[in-house]
Design goal:
Layout: H1 3-51, H2 68-76
Transmembrane segments: 34-55
Keywords: Membrane, Transmembrane, Transmembrane helix
Protein name: Putative ovule protein
Length: 77
């Protein structure tokens, strides 16, 4: 085998490895974005669900003790 052939084979192998790395990174990134979207949707649904049990306040800017803003952070712990 000539040295030229070995070098060419090695370069070809490196190109394949580089492509696989790029493809997997891209695939994982897409999956990660999708999972992030699902997770956010899940959190929003929990918030909407808990808001059903919120005590309505006369003043919208006032935090009620049983309000979603007080309850939800404790559920995350």
């Amino acid at each position: 085998m000539s040295v030229d052939y070995k070098a060419k084979k090695k370069e070809q192998g490196l190109q394949i490895v580089a492509f696989e790395g790029w493809y997997l990174r891209r695939k994982n990134f897409i999956v990660f974005k999708y999972m992030y979207f699902l997770e956010m949707t899940y959190h929003i649904l929990i918030v909407v669900f808990l808001m059903q049990f919120r005590i309505p306040s006369k003043n919208n800017f006032q935090l009620v003790e049983n309000s979603i803003f007080v309850t939800y952070p404790f559920l995350l712990i």
